[in-house]
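Checklist before submission:
- one chain only
- standard amino acids only
- sequence pasted in full

Submission:
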Amino acid sequence: MSRYTKAKGRLVRRFGVNIFENPKMDKLLEKRPHGPGQHGSARSRGKDSEYKKQLLEKQKLRFMFGITEKQLRNYYQKAAALKEATGDALLKLLERRLDNVIYRAGFAKTRAQARQMVSHGLFNLNGRRVSIPSIQVREGDTIEVREKSKASPLFADVKGEKDFDFARWLKSEQKTLKTEVV
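Returned file contents:
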């Protein structure tokens, strides 16, 4: 299975939660608080099984980070091998993906945009050009926009944005378009 490229609004309505952290989707949930499709409003009958709850949570995670089932399985196996709690370790591994770090640093408006920016090679990781969104960043790594890409209109908004809420484990400098993992 490849990346999900269809309507994001359907997913948000199916889960009942804004998994993409997009203000547009909040408005959609206010306007249509029921599931998508012809029988979306009638779906809330009965009690959900434990299996259904777990499956929906797993699917939320998959679609939120834009990864495939196989990638999620590999991340789970890595997390299970670590000594800390598997759920916490899994979230840490997913949060430390390069595309997610770029999104958290405020260089992209969505994770999908961050993924595409990395794929197009707009960033340097520790001084080297990278084009793989799934690279795991570590403490001390620096991510910066390449010199050729700084003139791009994509980053014109970033320099002016002041009210972006950064992750606590990132030290970001908006003026120089540089981020360090702390």
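Reviewer check: The mean pLDDT is 91.
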